Amino acid sequence: MFKVFRHYSLARSPYVSSSAQLTSLLRTRRSYFSTSSIAYEELKEISDVSKSPMAAKAKPEEITGNIDLKSFKQLSGVVHDDLIDAIERLKFSKMTPVQEKSIKPILETNRGMVARAKTGTGKTLAFGIPLLHDAIFSDNTPKFNTEVRALIIAPTRDLAHQISAELRKVLLADNPTKYKRSIVSEIQTVVGAERRDLQLRAFQGKNCPSIVVGTPGRLIDILNEPLVAEKFGNLRFKVLDEADRLLDDGFKENLLQMDSTLKDLATGEGFRTILFSATIDKNVLGFAKQVLGNDFVYVNTVDPNEPETHEKISQSLVVSDDMFKCFVAAVHNIATLYMESREKNTPFKPIIFLPTIKSVEFFGQLLEHYLAHCHDVRFCRNSRDKASKRLRLLMLHGSKSQAAREAVVRDFKKYDHSMLVTSNVGARGMDFPNVTNVFQVNLPSEVSDYIHRIGRTARGDSNHGEATLFITEAEEKGLRLFKDRKIKFAKTLTFDDVVENPESTINAVQEISTSHTYGLGDPKTQRAEGIDNKKAVFSTFRGHMGYLQSVASVYRLSNFDLLASLNEFYKGFCASTKRPFLSPESLSKVKLNNREKEELYESPRSSTRSYGDNNSGRYERSNRFERSDRFDKSDRYDRSNRSDRSDKFERSNKFNRSDRFEKPGNYERSDRFKSRDRKSREGFDYLRDSGSEKSGKRNNNRNSRNSKNDDFDFFS
Ligand SMILES: Nc1ncnc2c1ncn2[C@@H]1O[C@H](COP(=O)(O)OP(=O)(O)OP(=O)(O)O)[C@@H](O)[C@H]1O
């Protein structure tokens, strides 16, 4: 039988009668344990937080000190023994540092918490175990659940599903014979792009999940339903996973609003807020101050003298002259490593990050054709074909349907003989087993993204991972922000170091990108109109224009240098010496002066002869215009998918969601707004306000926000 409070009979709410008592109790206990350097730094950081103006009155007590717990067994008396047994059945014998330092304070104090620990160190169970204990295992848990006791908020749908699955795994380990449906109904996932009516049914009548995991948009939406809202009256914990991402500019207000809605709904003691991430910034601490009133525990397992990246990951940098070579170096390097791994029979399971949705598609298809064309690699294209030993090349991004996204995540988790090409949507929290390498093409939209992306390798018990960043010379100066975060590259290579035979490699790539056999664009359009890769090259180029201009403002880089380097992407993949053509509208939105624009782009004013790579005059010009219209159509297709989402939000009137859609978004998302603005035919809406310095500034902010939020599902 479960015996609570064996060690902490004085504990308050429900285990400690006062936090002061608990502190003194812990101090006494701590004196019996040696203090590690991490513990020392951690205490120092706590006092740093308390000294900061933001947390001037904060009294983060020494609760997060070195309570030297090692095995889960040592949680006995705090956490239900059945739960401990279940965790041990999952073969987790020892706690990770963040679990060691968070589980007890979450259960034993009545204060909120901010916790920071490196990627892949078990943060999910660090908050999951206390929540499972309180909501399902503790003696206080009602036998028939009628109320939601814990709410977990995640930035992406995929992450929300993953958290639910991890918690259900623990429940299943506790009771393998339990009817699967009842385990699923204990933990309800509430995310956008899935049937709302089914999600609401989980709260109908006597039904009620103990733990709800979701993305903010749909959570806010269903909280407007009285039927759901009343079940949140006795909420005890609210967790923000990947808190810094959730609290990015523009979203904080909505989460604060959700917080106040939940506080209004509270009928009992109220709930505690817990914030977790590998990267804690001033946004998170500011939010903590606002909702927790300066009184929170700060757990930090990252030594301030060390980089935030995991020491188990060896990091390399490849700098190429321009964007074309940058892509070629990445494709060639990944293909070479894959072929080596096949020869030596060693594992190779990479994730490749690209900045925009269009570039994910482009790079994924280019890599696939390169492997097929140059190395005769055969692919498994049917996700139901379980027996196939062929390589699975999977693509994940925000404009795939939710079902397709789930299938990709499932397959990449399941099959080690696979590669994943993804946008930022796969960057945070996703726990794919056995990932050996992380490749990133171009600077990420912020340094934290770099830290989270490379954290997809060397997770949990895994001892080593490789991370490679491919950038252009124009991006190189941005690395000073990496240096500020103590990020060090073990190796810095050039295009020539990575590509042994540049000429034949470039020829092979151009053979693919200019061919009528290997399609790089939307397969549906290609089926209907024949393969014309220039469209795919141009639309990837266009998406990158937006991205690079936002990167320029985040890293303070030269727009001209970045866009000049991007021109080489267009020329290289079209095997042409001509500059790309931009319509006057598009040109007016590029943040360059007229001379620079003339230098980089063809336009009706600068030339009546050549449009893109052709010299055939008027016909080509109109052709170009037509093409850009066609691009617009395909973007409209993207938009219509998304407008579905916004329709869903219209249902709720409490939060003005449609407004909020202006805030997040990515480069693809910005396309959505085109229908409202017929003038911006070519999709450079992210530059809408350029002009006066003031509006330019506003723009920069918006761009950096857009870039940060590339591909996340906050409000869906
Ligand atoms: N005590 C433990 N011992 C060994 N492995 C563990 C332990 N706790 C969790 N894990 C495993 O470690 C892996 C990473 O855990 P998790 O996804 O929670 O990391 P995280 O810290 O949340 O990472 P991220 O910052 O990327 O979100 C998972 O596969 C998880 O099952």
TrEMBL record:
It catalyses: ATP + H2O = ADP + phosphate + H(+). It holds the Pfam family DEAD. InterPro entries: DEAD/DEAH_box_helicase_dom (IPR011545), Helicase_ATP-bd (IPR014001), Helicase_C-like (IPR001650), P-loop_NTPase (IPR027417), RNA-helicase_DEAD-box_CS (IPR000629). Residues 104-298 form the Helicase ATP-binding domain. Residues 604-617 have a biased composition (Polar residues). Gene3D superfamilies: P-loop containing nucleotide triphosphate hydrolases. Residues 333-506 form the Helicase C-terminal domain. It comes from the Eukaryota. Residues 618-696, 707-716 have a biased composition (Basic and acidic residues). Its EC number is 3.6.4.13. Keywords: ATP-binding, Helicase, Hydrolase, Nucleotide-binding, RNA-binding. Residues 595-716 are annotated as: Disordered. One of its GO terms (molecular function) is hydrolase activity. GO terms for cellular component: intracellular organelle lumen. Belongs to the DEAD box helicase family. RNA helicase. The Q motif is unique to and characteristic of the DEAD box family of RNA helicases and controls ATP binding and hydrolysis. This is ATP-dependent RNA helicase. It comes from Saccharomycopsis crataegensis. The lineage of its organism: Eukaryota, Fungi, Dikarya, Ascomycota, Saccharomycotina.
